[in-house]
Amino acid sequence: MTFDLVLVGFGNVARRFVALLKERRAVLEREHALQARVIAVATRRHGHAFWPGGLDAVSLARRIERGKSIGSDAVSGSSRTGSLSSLEMLRRVVARSGAAARRRRLVVVETTTLDIARGEPATRHIRAALAGGAHVITANKGPVAFAYRSLARAADRAGRRFLFEGTVMDGIPVFNLVRETLPTVNVIGFRGVVNSTTNYILTAMEQGQGFDEALARMQAVGIAEADASLDVDGWDAAAKTAALANVLLGASLTPRTVERRGISAETGRQAIAARAAGRRLKLVARAVREGRRITARVAPEELPADDLLAGLEGQQNALILQTDLLEEFAIVQRSGSLTETAYALLSDLVTIARDVRTAGASRRSRPRAPGRRSL
Amino acid sequence: MTFDLVLVGFGNVARRFVALLKERRAVLEREHALQARVIAVATRRHGHAFWPGGLDAVSLARRIERGKSIGSDAVSGSSRTGSLSSLEMLRRVVARSGAAARRRRLVVVETTTLDIARGEPATRHIRAALAGGAHVITANKGPVAFAYRSLARAADRAGRRFLFEGTVMDGIPVFNLVRETLPTVNVIGFRGVVNSTTNYILTAMEQGQGFDEALARMQAVGIAEADASLDVDGWDAAAKTAALANVLLGASLTPRTVERRGISAETGRQAIAARAAGRRLKLVARAVREGRRITARVAPEELPADDLLAGLEGQQNALILQTDLLEEFAIVQRSGSLTETAYALLSDLVTIARDVRTAGASRRSRPRAPGRRSL
């Protein structure tokens, strides 16, 4: 079963994703009957193009890494698409892929960068993709943080999947874990450390490094966002908190309705003092449902040394889920890498392939699962 | 879609399971189109009976908790089965449930107690069930620890599922996590604390309690096995280690081929000394694949204080998975209860229901996944 992929955004994550698809090609085909080819790429800075017959995306990634643009010279069979916006490009590609869309074999992979003000244009990309009969996979937190409920409804109406495992803790299963392995369990709250940059800065400052020095190091290795405020002011953590609360608790939050405090050089001094007193300061994300009300917050918290979150060093993340049937349990990410985020996209693609493979039976008898269907 | 359940073993876990089925009845039906009825119960001490039309298992559980036996007085519609062995009883029930078996709606729920010497009679129960066309769910570590590979093959041949989420960390997803949410990821090793009783004893001894006192407390609350050796000599942990290695690493271990050292009053003194030196002593289970060789071990290990496993208090468990694509990540169980083990059976039943619902499509196109199919 061959899926046609439309990549919107072709940065580090998407480029690692196409490489990973190639590396795992044999096992994807053998164990999941899954083949995939990239038929279009849309980028903001490197141009875009449409190859209805598919192209070698790994070579294209190398071209871009050598500083070339996608449409800058002839690519066999390509239709140059000039200066269209990504949204317009996406619409045209989806419209011209009607056969694949009708067979549920069209997947838009959205990896544009986070817009913390509104989650755009990613949310528009996703709406256009679903409206055109494509499934959507994204590693962009914006759409889930700003518009989960309406995107989930749009996916349901279209009979397509909208998946986003890569938005929290990279490829470590969080959303897929709850959807696939915790049937009938209700998540009633969570707390966690979900931003690697700030955790790295706090632990580095405990060891005497300066705030700016630690931040610069995270930016140099590509972990921190280019806009430092997204990390240190807690915006990234707030977006993840909104995404988790929207999906797992049924909330309708946005990053702006999450109570938010970030970290600064002053927080570093507090972290040193806390450590001296046998405690740790961490940037903690938390949300809880009380009756119909859901409250969510990101803020530095001083934790006892034996708290699971207190033990997170460097870039480690963890999420503690509070549930009805299984009480509390935690998922801990002990490392992080581009491969892990790219893997999230791959695992979502496999979920779609499984779904399509069993769609005949599913469509006839799949029951309604309100509030969970599109998770 | 109604499943007929045959309960082999009707102890605490199975009784909590039938109560949970009733409590979650509405959501199981609404979200998973799943209904279930108990048609037979086989026990060692309380007799057994077969009700082809189903019975109220919650009432039956209450009867047994009041000290009555299953067949001790007339149950409407029952066929008394006298002094048959559980295995013979199971064979007859399965043989008389051919219609449900052919429609893949027959499920044997195996919850007899662990036999650490051979994993029997549980393994024979499971073979008989699969041979008769039933799916099998178990919370008994024995069969997975002693005979995973051959049982997985038997399930494949029969086209039925063999699931066992409850064998490690109760209902916290471990096996389901890897199978459902980590496609193409290879697990290359693990280490963890997987026995609650010994972890409770070690932490209690650190705080000055005696070994016997701490063990007695765990037996009183029903966490420790009646045979203390299963916990303190590391047998339970070795069985879980064999199960994890067999399923996740493709090993062919048994509890006896896992290198094993347990804990004693002397270990408690070492734990106190370790704690005084800023370290913790834990009973660590570990396995690793090196080339074709898989080595596995259960032993007390002195860990640095910042090790994730060092932070586990009381009955907490954790498992750190080492993988190729996602490096290391951990699952931490922060509480434990009968409900959590019973939930594991429920989640396995939902997996079967999903599978049966999509079986038409699956059977036509489900690809081969060597070594993973029956996980």
Structure keywords:
six-stranded mixed beta sheet; 13 strands; alpha/beta; seven-stranded mixed beta sheet; 375 residues; 42% helix; homodimer
Number of helices of chain A: 15
Instruction: Give the oligomeric state of the chains in this entry, treating copies of one chain as homo and distinct chains as hetero.
Output: homodimer
Taking pLDDT < 50 over at least 5 consecutive residues as the criterion, the unreliable ranges of chain A are 72-78, 361-375
How large is the radius of gyration of chain A? 21 Å
Average pLDDT score of chain A: 91
Strand content of chain A: 15-25%
Strand order of the largest sheet of chain A: 4-3-2-1-5-6-7
Described by strand count, sense and barrel closure, the largest sheet of chain A is: 7 strands, mixed
Helix content of chain A: 40-55%
Distance between the termini of chain A: 23 Å
Q: Decide which structural class fits the backbone of chain A.
A: alpha/beta
The tally of strands of chain A reads 13
| Series of secondary-structure elements of chain A, N-terminal to C-terminal | EHHEEHEHHEHEHEHEHHHHEHEEEEHH
Shape of chain A: globular
Topology:
Two copies of one chain form a homodimer.
Chain A: E1 2-8, H1 12-23, H2 25-32, E2 35-42, E3 48-55, H3 57-65, E4 79-80, H4 86-95, H5 98-102, E5 106-110, H6 122-131, E6 135-138, H7 141-158, E7 162-163, H8 175-181, E8 187-193, H9 196-206, H10 211-220, H11 228-232, H12 235-248, E9 259-260, H13 265-276, E10 279-290, E11 293-304, E12 317-323, E13 328-333, H14 338-357, H15 359-365
Parallel strand pairs in A: 1-2, 1-5, 5-6, 6-7, 9-11
Antiparallel strand pairs in A: 2-3, 3-4, 8-10, 8-12, 10-11, 12-13
